Structure formats: structure tokens, C-alpha cells
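Protocol step 4 of 6: structure prediction from sequence.
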Amino acid sequence: MLRFIIPIIIVLFLELYTFLSVRTLTSNKFILIGFWIVTIIVYGIFFYQMSFAQRQGRFSISTGYAIGLALTFLVPKLFIFAILFIEDIFRFFASLFNYFQHNGMTIGESIPSRRKFISQLALGIAAIPFAGFLYGIFQGRYNYKVIKHTMFFDDLPAAFDGYKLTQISDIHSGSFDNKEKIEYAVDLINEQKSDVILFTGDIVNAVAEEMHPWIDTFKRLEAKDGLYSILGNHDYGFYAYQDQKDIDENHKKMEKVHEAIGFDLLLNDKRTLERNGEKLHILGVENWGASRHFPKRGSLCKAAAEVTDGEFNILLSHDPSHFDYKEMEIRTAEKEDPAVITDEPNIINFEKKIQLTLAGHTHGMQFGIEIPFLNLKWSPVKYRYPRWAGLYEEAGKYLHVNRGFGVLAFPGRVGIWPEITVIELKKRKNVA
């Protein structure tokens, strides 16, 4: 209970400052009473839906919209608070000056009134994120962007020069509510006409059944060299079930879902593509990340067991922290997950070269700022995952983190749009 006290106090401060701003502009009792009625309704819906989700062990679409409603009303009030708090600092020092400058003035008389202009400014600025969140919920979540990269490698087999792959990640079908928009996105993927489609995990929010209404839509995906996939942390059923039998049953259902769509599900395994006698390996590991909160079933050693030196490898690994983690804290006991792997090497230091790793997981937090021509890219998620979106390189190995296809919890995207990644592989020409 104590952990909720600080957030509740913060929310109360935000609501109080917003109320003070509104009261500066109007003394209409109906508006002022209406403010608190709306506030109570919004938070009432939020807490009811969150308690319902906790009982069900999963997020429903209605829970997502309750979260979206609460954030849409709450986040703009951070701006109101910041502006009015700065004004209150000036009012505090002005009241001290007035009190000591004018003899006989009471403390109440010495405090300057809140300026109407400042309250108008605060509400005006707050309207910007308010509108942004509304756009993110109703339009931004479907604002699919095709992001293209051309990558050059010295050791790419010549037969695969110009090879094109499409990566999608974090479908989270349990949050879908618009079939027309999803069908549009699937068609957009097919329009890229890539040689292969690679999916990097989290096809559902919690259970395999969430994907059943969408199988016919996604089975339309096509690529001449096939579709390959892996599991993400949400695909194991751990967020819905406690009993190992239920978790195992969900896993079987999940395998059937991937098969029905046409995905070749890689569970610490590899597939080899051949052209003109040359090979390119696609490796896929189960979920593995540095956080102790997520499943650790991935084994790069198993997936790459038959890979020999000098071959070109593309790895699918859901969590980008797998790429370069340095230290980790593992508290997951084997009795909680018999398949846990605690000695997994990071990809950079792995004994066999993995030229390109594809990951997802972060969603770019579904909130941030990206202005390509200014080379500006920021999201709060960077403080948890330093490699959170786009291309990264270290020690001659590359990581691409996809911003995600769907949404989770917050039912929208603000500034970080859903991504379809297209990567063209090129062989670097040696210049004499």
C-alpha cells in the first residue's frame, strides 16, 4: 500500500493545480463542480479496469482505453503544474517583499493574486499534449511507417547482394480493434516485396487465443523465401497463468498459431537459405533479456551449434538487452521456470560472429520525439534500454531495434509510430 502513496500525492497535486488554474479563469460553480466530477469518473474507470485486469491476469482492450483516458487527462496537467509552480515561486518572494516593505500588511494581503494570463498560458500549452494523446489513440497507433535501411557487409555472400528482408515486431494482437487498419498494414508489408519476412516476438499480450481472430489476416503475408518468427516475453502465458500445465498448454497453442499464419517458429534453432551454392543463416532464439522480470529461455549456443566460421548470420532475438548486457541479476528459480537459462552469452562477445541482430520489445515506449533531419531521437525508454530504436553498431556487429507493430497498455502512439522495417543487404565492394 505504501508504494501507492507517493503516486497518489503527486496526482492530487496535479489535480489541485489544474483546478486552481481553472478557478482563476472562472467562478462558475457548475464548471468547478464539473471539473471534480469528471476527474472522479476518469480515475474511477481507471482503477476499476486495472483491478479487473489484475483479476483476469491480462490486459483487455477496455483496460487499454482506461489507461489511455487517464494518461490523456493526467499528462497535460504536468505542464500546468510546472507553469503554475514557477509562478508560485515568484509569488512567494513577492509576498515576502510586500510583507516586509509595507508595515501593517497581513500575510494574506501580501500574497499577489494568481495572474489570469498565466493560467490561460498553462491551459493553452497543456492543450498541445492533450490533443497529441487523442491523436495518438485514434490515429497514431495506425500511422504505420516503412523505414528502410541499406546495410553494407564485407562478408555477405555475393549471391545475397541486394537481398531484402522485412522485419515486424510486437504485434500484440490482444490490443487490436480495427480490422481495416490491420489489413492495410499487412498489405503494406506485402507491398515491400521482400525476399523474407522476419517477426521478432510478442504476437499477443498474454494468451494464444488473442491471435485467433487475426490469423486469416496475417496468413496473407508472403515472401518468396518464407516467413520466420520467434517468441517474445508476452508469448509464454506467464502473465495470464500460474500453473505450469496451463503455461505448457498455451505454448502448444502458440506454436499452432504461428503455423497457421505460415511462420516458421524458431525455438533456439536455425534455418539456412541457399543461393548459387552460398548460404545465409537465420537464427532464432527464445526470449532472453537482462531483466529478471522476463523469461530467459533463449540459447544462442543451441541456435548456432552448426554454424561454422565465415558464414553470414542474421539473429532474431526479441529483447535488445541480449545484444550487449554486461551484468545481470537473476532471481528466477528453476522451480518457477524449468527452462530458464542463466549463463547465456551476450551477442557481441559470442564466439561466432552474428553480423546482424533483429530485436523489438521496447516499442520506443510508444511515446517520444523523432525529427530525422535534425538527427533528434528521444524517448523515456532510453533510460531503461540504451539501444531502443533503429540501428546500432558495436565491434563490427549490428543491432536493429524495431519500434513495434502494435500497442500494449496505452492504446496509442505519440511521436513513435508503428514500424515496418525493410533492410537491403549489400556486399561492400573493395576499392583497390
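Step 5 (inspection) to follow. The longest helix spans residues 61-101.
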